[in-house]
Amino acid sequence: MEILYPMVFSSVVVLATLVYASYLDIRDRRVPFVYWLPMLAAGTACTALLLWQTTASAGIITGYLAIVASFLFADYLDNRGRTDSPYLTGYYRKASLLYYLPVVLILPALSWFVFLPSINYQLVPWYAMFAGIISYISYMEYRGMFDEKPRGKSRKQDTSMAKIINRWYFILIILIFAIVSVLMLYGQNGWGSPAIMLLFLSVFCGVFYLFGRMHFFGGADAWALIFISFCIPTFPFTPLLGNPPLGFLAFSVLINALILNMVAPLGIFIMNVIRKNRAPLMYMFFGFPVNGDRIQDEWGFVMEDFSEKKGQVSRKFVGFWESIRRMYSGEGRVYTKDLREHPEEFLKELAIYRRAGTVWISYAVPFIIPITAGLITAIVFGDLLFAVMNIFMGVK
Questions:
Q1: Coil/strand/helix, residue 288
Q2: CB atoms inside a 10 Å sphere around CB 46
Q3: 204 vs 183: CA distance, rounded Å
Q4: Is 306 helix (H, G, I), strand (E, B) or coil?
């Protein structure tokens, strides 16, 4: 059995970080971004070493680093340079932007042009698009065009357009990396089969980055999957159930996490049946009622809308598509953590919850916990879904 020692070391670091991140997410429902950085530094170094051992290609290594740097730069722009730090606001934020931007632009240039035997002219327009988009977004950030300062009708319109650009520009960056990876996979002057890994990284990480931006996925959960992809792109050794066809570890981690996470809804449904809680069938799997007087002590999102007329409280469950809309917009969802930390902003809601007696909320087990379990099972056993499919198909 071949053992990829850089991936073994990276797996240990990633697993230790995920265990601690799970603890933080359970305790605070938040994982500060800074806690991911030591893991990412160790993981990218290990992956770069593995790429050098297997390909000896400076182009593929700088291409990999270009993807990692672009994701980190996008997060930097999306979060205003982590403005919780006084050294990354105002002048300091703008100055740091000027340091980061050249790195993001230089890495793909080195990978796509400098470290190839000759220039692949197919890549020139794609690099021009990449550099143009990143530079323009950086210019908008430098000028403060993404800041929340609506003053007057025209300013509100500009801010709205800036929000749209800020939210969706990274789709184009992801597509550029994916297209370049395909060109370098099949082109005569490309990287060959190692480009498949960069294609997987671009698409998989891009999807979960956008899920996080659209609030379909928790921020810590999305970054956990992205950083697992960057730090352990392939299995460190052959798992007990064999290597899955893709050989992309993060995909197996996700599949295993989803399978393991299915236990929670089943348990919640059984609990509701035993306690004789009544709700439409779908809600019986994903939520449970809590005392309205103590809702601030719970964890989860409120699953009901309440109104009061002539002293009578009426209630209805939030529909599926309405829930999706609220997740996407980031508005209209009531999180019990917000009720606890900012009660002054929810005085009306808290009062009506008390009068309602009980309130249905969604269960709030952080998904990072099944992700951690999914990583362990993927490394040891492999892809659980692939193994089940092999059993049904009679493959040994």
A1: strand
A2: 23
A3: 18
A4: strand
Q: Which amino acid is at 216?
A: F
153 exposed, middle or buried (CB, 10 Å; 0-12, 13-18, 19+)? exposed
CA distances from 336 to 116, 203, 221, 299, 339 (A): 54, 34, 19, 6, 5
Name which of 135, 159, 134 is nearest 145 in CA terms.
159
Q: What is the mean pLDDT of residues 25-32?
A: 82
Length, in residues, of the chain? 396
Tokens of residue 35, six digits:
């806690």
Q: How far apart are CA 323 and CA 331, in angstroms?
A: 10
pLDDT by residue (tens digit) across 154-180?
Answer: 434 444 676 777 778 899 999 999 999
* Contacting residues for 131 by C-beta, under 8 A, at least 6 apart: 105
Scored b (16 or more CB within 10 A) or e, 335-363 reads bbbebeeeeeebeebbebbeebebbbbbb
Q: In 3-state terms, what secondary structure has residue 280?
A: coil
Q: How far apart are CA 252 and CA 258, in angstroms?
A: 10
- In angstroms, the CA 24 to CA 372 distance is 13
Map tokens 């902003």 to a residue. 345
First to last CA, the chain: 18
What's the pLDDT at 89? 52
Average pLDDT over residues 202-224: 86
Alpha helix (H) residue ranges in 143-218: 152-186, 195-213
Predicted TM-score (pTM) of this structure: 0.81
Parse the chain into domains and list their residue ranges.
5-237, 252-396
Q: What are the counts of helices (DSSP H) followed by strands (DSSP E) for the chain?
A: 16, 4
Closest CA to 366 of 29, 31, 34: 29
